Amino acid sequence: MTRTCPIPALASLLFGLVLAGVFSAQAQPVFSPATVGGPRSGQAAELFLPEGRGPFPAMVVLHGCDGVGPHYRNWARRLRRWGYAALLVDSFGPRGVREVCAHGREVPPEAQAADAFHAAAWLRTRPDIAPGRVGVIGFSHGGWAVLKAVLADAPPAGVAAFAAAIAFYPGCERPTAPLVTDTLILIGADDDWTPPGRCVRWSQTVNRNGHALEMLTYPGAVHAFDTVAPLHIYFGHRVGGNPVAAADAETQVRQFLAARLAP
């Protein structure tokens, strides 16, 4: 007996196949050395280099669900002041996406992690970068990507793992492999967008595989606590800066990186 697929069901099936194709395409890395420029160059990757000749330790910087903006450039400049080269990678623009704050899987965290690995591989080819001292830092959606990148099943073939990783208020899902990178997680206790309980479970579940894993939860802090924005509602969630938590997080990041990437 032949069964006929009703028109609505057929349309739904076709839409699903198209959507799957879009997601598959979006998951492919888009970083290209040809699109690297200087700070605020408008290129898909912005390289912030410290003064001097190097070789410098380096950090790949991954933006949040809102795309590249002032907050992430501020972090790149901060890292540069500390003596790190910082490569801020735009994972949305080259994919034709502006933001994913209400639909995070449109550019999945695995895709942003893949961008980070390809960016790091390019950094390691530069004579002014110390190839064994390249780390990654990400915020919100980018922090979610960081927690994908630190697992043993993440690095592409022939690409080294990161030497250090920092995730600010990340999305936390069940880990799929052991750690391959020392990792620091920083999150607000009152975060209603990426609840800290999920990251607690992640940190308790992941096989640390001999690597350091630190998680700091800041009382009274919400999502994006390290920004200067006042407390407000954004896509249905409370977000905004907490100066006390932000100052401590900056100190923690600097110490964590100095112990792993400094000469």
List keywords for this structure.
globular, 8-stranded mixed beta sheet, single chain, disordered N terminus, Rossmann fold, 263 residues, 10 strands, two-stranded antiparallel ribbon, alpha/beta
Main sheet properties: 8 strands, mixed
User: Which structural category do the helix and sheet elements fall into?
Assistant: alpha/beta
CATH superfamily: Alpha/Beta hydrolase fold, catalytic domain
Stated plainly, the CATH topology is called Rossmann fold
**Which blocks of ≥5 consecutive residues have pLDDT under 50?**
1-25
CATH-level-2 architecture:
3-Layer(aba) Sandwich
Helical fraction: 25-40%
CATH class, please?
Alpha Beta
Give the number of domains: 1
Radius of gyration: 19 Å
The average pLDDT value, as a whole number, equals 90
Put simply, the count of helices is 6
Order the strands across the largest sheet as they lie in space.
1-2-4-3-5-6-7-8
Question: What is the global morphology?
Answer: globular
The beta-strand count equals: 10
Order of helices and strands: HEEEHEHEHEEHEEEH
The N- and C-terminal alpha carbons lie at a distance of 72 Å
How much of the sequence lies in strands comes to 15-25%
Topology:
Blueprint: H1 7-26, E1 36-37, E2 45-48, E3 56-62, H2 70-81, E4 85-89, H3 109-123, E5 129-139, H4 141-149, E6 165-168, E7 183-188, H5 196-205, E8 213-218, E9 232-234, E10 237-239, H6 243-261
Helix pairs in contact: 3-4
